[in-house]
Structures are given as structure tokens and as C-alpha cells.
Amino acid sequence: MFVQPIFIGYLFALAAAIYFASKPQSEALNLYLAFIFRWSVFIVFTILSLVFITEKNLLAIFLLVYLNSTFNPKQITV
Can you say how many angstroms the Cα of residue 2 is from the centroid of all Cα atoms in its chain? Predict the structure, then answer.
């Protein structure tokens, strides 16, 4: 029952983290903040998944890992 809201919330939180990480002018700081924010959001939502999703926890966590490793809305080119 909690699966869809958790994943939709995860996508919105991930997009917000990337948005806030892109605010500083330094590209190095953008990369650092994006990395820290993305993994922080990942850890929080992994814990939420383990607590609220009682069935198929492994599938939910693999989906979070997949989304966290592939969702990159901003390509940084030097």
C-alpha cells in the first residue's frame, strides 16, 4: 500500500536534491552536493522502504538502487 507513494516521493525528493545541488556557481561544489544529497535521499528512502513495505523488500530496495544509480537529469560537461 505504501509502495507507490514512497517511490513517487523518492523521485520528487531526488529531483529536489539535484535542483538544490545545482544552485551554487561552482561545478565542483555542484557535483559534491549532488552526490551527498542523492545518497542521503537514498538512505532515507531505503529506511522508509524497509519500515513500511513489508512484502517484497528486496525488490523495492533494488528499484531504489537502480533509480539512484541511473537518474541523472543534468549532464556536466567541462
Answer: 17
